[in-house]
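Issue: copy button drops trailing tokens. Both records pasted manually instead:
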Amino acid sequence: MATFLYKLGRLAFRRRHFVALIWVALLTLAGVGAASAPAAGTTSFSIPGTEAQKAFDLLEQRFPGMSADGATARVVFKAPDGEKMTDAAHKATVEKTVKELSDGSEVASVADPFQAKAVSEDGTIAYASVSYKVSGMELEDSSREALEDAAEGARDAGLTVEIGGDALQTTPETGATEVIGIAVAAVVLVITFGSLISAGMPLLTALIGVGIGVSAITALASTLDLGSTTSTLAMMIGLAVGIDYALFIVSRYRAELAEGRAREEAAGRAVGTAGSAVVFAGLTVVIALVGLSVVNIPMLTKMGVAAAGTVAIAVLIALTLIPALLGYAGRKVRPAGEKGKLLGGGRAKSAEKAAKPNMGTRWASFVVRRPVAVLLLGVIGLGAAAVPVSSLELGLGDDGSQPTSTTQRRAYDLLSEGFGAGFNGPLMVVVDAKGSEDPQAVFSDVGDEIKSLKNVVTVTPATPNEAGDTATITVIPDAKPSSVATEDLVHAIRDKGTDIKADTDADILVTGSTAMNIDVSQKLNDALVPYLVLVVGLAFLLLIVVFRSILVPLKAALGFLLSVMAALGAVVAVFQWGWFADLLGVEETGPVMSMMPIFMVGVVFGLAMDYEVFLVTRMREAYVHGETPGQAVVTGFRHGARVVTAAAVIMMAVFAGFIGSSESMVKMIGFGLAIAVFFDAFVVRMAIVPAVLALLGKKAWWLPKWLDRALPNVDVEGEGLRAHDDDADRELARA
């Protein structure tokens, strides 16, 4: 592989005009496609195989005019202190508001609070339910404006009015911190390279890669039913790996220049050696992201595949566009150790300063001398950070997890105040009595059975369809949607349904957003172990091929488990316990998002293997070329520690930039990935890995002979390029 990539790097360097033209054309094509594509609707959140999804599908069949996937809004009214909503003036205001809401072309129905008995017992709070013909993301701006204008009119009349539901759903904003993250990355690159030109290349290529990836996602969003979070994730990961991959190749190019090689030759060797590491690092990320499809949640699969596509683009750009840009830059990219004029270039280094070991060398030498102490300190530290995982609670966000500054959250709180905490998470029980002799009796019996359960506040009478063989029953729990009591109630209703089916042959299904959230959490928990086995197993085999070792990939996988558990512990401490919540802008604590553990496992594993590949391939290269195991560790750090450190800081900065998002899911993902990179890069890869390698010695690189013969030789260390050098030297000697 090293020889092929070496030739590719030299070709891209020579044919830089052609290579640059191809990438500009791809960026233009993707941009035009995104600009001309129809607006994407909301992502259809389906969970195949779950009871909640089966009930939803049954409703689509038996209640065709129900518009089950249409947007909804609850306009909540509260009377001033000492007054009631039933007062004539307030009643007239509400009726006027309901009339205004009914005029919209996309409105399917509006329920008057006084006719629907949607007034609290004390008479101070009421709500009007609005149903739309289209989903929340498909609503026209005029419909949202009409909804807000109607609410504003009621406010002017003296009522407190808030709007809940998904009708006001909009694309999440990431905030200014995303730009700050990119700015931090730029500063780190300038410090690392000591040159503005060298620092600009990784940023430029990463932005081009993300531009192509996100534009392609936007262009296909409507066709493939991709939501806004899909492009946000692709941008987050694409920026991080795009900068890192380019950083490693540019750094290796400068190192090759420092050894006296011609620029085209240096570009070829940089792509042949560092580029090989980029390919395998990218493969591990792609495997981890595409592997999310085993969970069988379409939204998660689409997010993973889209992000994996952006990573693949980042790899291709690093292998082709970076050497092309190096060709354009010429002498403006200086050898390692030299700085540009703006940063003090041209100053002669003293011999003593030039010979002084860098920080990476000093740290590696310390670890090699004290491996046991470093190993214990690292493992104990990560273990302590992982302790909060023992109290991990999972759930999916609703309006109750929104910031208190939003009208959705204030509407949620008003409904809880007026109708009870469980009112925001009603359960819909679907009774399929098509095979029963007396469907009406079954509907009545089911309602009575549910009323007898604990934690039930209200059970509405059954509402049958036109055929009279299927009915819906709304159940209001006593506790809030994300509580354990509500989850127990869902399971209790389903247990009752099993008994009723045995007696009447009728199916009892529980659905609604609360039941859907419970089913998602269960499905994700069930899929976590198979996913770990698949992804870690495939990456383990890939790393055996890369490192030609059994223990090094095993150590890499165990180190990853330490870092991901510590990162999950930090997420629990911040988003569930509330530690440093104000500092990070977390306005509401609560259960951790259900998909967070499996999502972090996928993404963090891929990113963790990036640093493993980049750092350890340098050690492997030194060992293969004759150094002792201890010397190889020090050599790997001398050449790679500075660059890996810069890469980790950049990735942390990019991920941390998304903490400013208005979407709680994006905020949590940004924080989780940033802290995971910190733990993995600076504790696992920089401390635990060299300590373990120092303790193992030559055993670290052991591989059974039969397996060595069976494995393909991918030559990540560039041994084939050394043979190429020897051939060139012999040719010169003959001449």
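Record 2 (pasted manually too):
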Amino acid sequence: MSAEATDPGNAEAAGRRRVRPRLDVQGLRRIGRAALLGPAPRDGLPDALEHVAKVHRRHHPHADLDILSKAYVLAETSHRGQMRKSGEPYITHPLAVTLILAELGAETTTLTASLLHDTVEDTEVTLDQVRTEFGAEVCYLVDGVTKLEKVDYGAAAEPETFRKMLVATGNDVRVMSIKLADRLHNMRTLGVMRPEKQVRIAKVTRDVLIPLAERLGVQALKTELEDLVFAILHPEEHAATCRLVREHAGRPDPLAAIAARVRTTLAEAGIHADVLVRPRHFVSLHRVRLTRGELTGADLGRLLVLVAEDADCYAVLGELHTCFTPVVSEFKDFIAAPKFNLYQSLHTAVTGESGQIAETLIRTHQMHRAAEAGVIALGNPYAPTDGPDAPDGERADPTRPGWLSRLLEWQRATPDPDAFWSSLRDDLAQDREITVFCAGGPANGPADGSLGLPAGASCVDAAYARYGEAAHCCIGARVNGRLATLATVLRDGDSLHLLMAPESATGPAPEWLDHARTPAARLAISRWLARPAGTDTGEPPPHPPTAPVVADHDPAAAELTPAAVLAVADLPGAPVRLAGCCTPVPPDNVTGFAVRGGTVTVHRALCPVVARMAATGRQPVGVRWRRPGRTGHGCRVTLLAEAFSRPHLLADLTEAIAAQGVAVVSAAVEPPHEQRVRHTYTLHLPNAAGLPSLMRAMREVPGVFDVLRAGRPTPTAALRP
């Protein structure tokens, strides 16, 4: 936590300060000078804490500063004699971290812990001493941000340190707030490090800490961290962005003219609002330039309109869309539907008189504070909400947001540090979150409700997020009321109903890994696939308490048909089921596999599942038809009709099937590809002996060139996209 460098005074740094002013640099310099003199109290407060106290009082006017003074004295005493690589006293680092958090409105307990955050790691101070002098709450925060020793953990020290911080953050998000402020100050002072170490630290910041800052809603820290990482990892693009800012510095600002017109418009409407021009930070400018190419002066910033009440936000929106020409495609309402990281605002864009487009953010002052400081703006999540420092409105509990709960769940199942580190980066790379609405099962099942998932998640991810290991039994889904495969990518606002079999015939297929995006799903599937051949847990797998799903709805999603009466296994007393993937009927050549729970699932010998099971080392179980010489029992079968696309094909095929006295259980038609189409029918035959004549009748339908049993590769599979 002690990366250090002198603050560069070059033109690029100056340009960066112009785009997004840093926290009070002069205050940091005064802190440094005061720290050199040691804890010289004046009116009961050390000189070095004066600026921190002044900033803290702006947000918390009734705060008790005695504990801050006590924490500073311990920190300064314990760090005395330690120097940063720039030659400054080490105490300037915890002071700077504390000032960053004070600027964002952190409460007194967080500031106390930030002053002490390096004492246990770098000095003789112990956690017991911190607990005795400052209480269990401060001790927990200090312990949460204390690194694990490389002597004890070796190469795993860094990933295990982050694991420890994430677990601590799951109980108190203030742990990660201190870590983010600590990393920001270290990134600001990284210049004296070796270039290769700068790059390593910048990459970890980019891959882990910036996404965490985004998820916690701390935009003030996130944007500056992005700019500092940008300067290290992409120096040429950073320099080009600096030049772009300097080129426009001497030109008239079109946003200023539009802002003046907006102020006049809102004043005439009787709406009290602060209208500001908010410059974009460097990374945002770079992204806009990549998207739009040549930038205009209006692209260098956005308008920010701050009002008092939520209703005023919509009043401002109405006035802007009435008096200006809006860009309808740019409108987003994050007030009615807040982002998962607490962010609320109205986004729109209007066109000025000269044709310049001004992107505009409309929010209340409280929303703006939450947008900048995120969970830090919520203060102590455990403090009572009444009192002089209680925020206006209802306080949301930030201690366990949905993404953090998911992360904590899968990290428990990932003991390997390398696997955890790579999974953590992959999980945090998903920079957006969607919400799907799940229908629960019957009584005692999961209740209806929303499910938060990373953008790009599929039905496989939703199944494991909702049911955990029991998702091995998932056989399909309905998305917005329509049957869908487990590979279907979900969108924000989708309605989802997962179809669960009463027990799993084969468990997840290896192909599920291709559709899983979340670490929790991938880890659960990988664990199942990696089981030693023929092993069993000794007890049935955990299943969601749902009613059995008969796989009549979608043959592509089906795993099991109802209990078979025609087949018997070579395991006395074992129940037998016919697999829905290949729908075996007498006199097919069949084989079976025992699944957890003792059931034997019967497959056709040509079914691809048989090859997959054999490849994993699963031992087949002998099965036979109960009455080999008789085929007069009703059965169910799935057929694939390959045909050239033409009008009325479905009607003609259905008529041919009905003429054979066969009932259609379900039918599905794939979209035509290269003038070819595939129809999938699940049929109930009164007599298995009638299957050959049925298939001949279907082949005689004009346009049909083949009819196949489901459960084996089709000759035209290579033609499918």
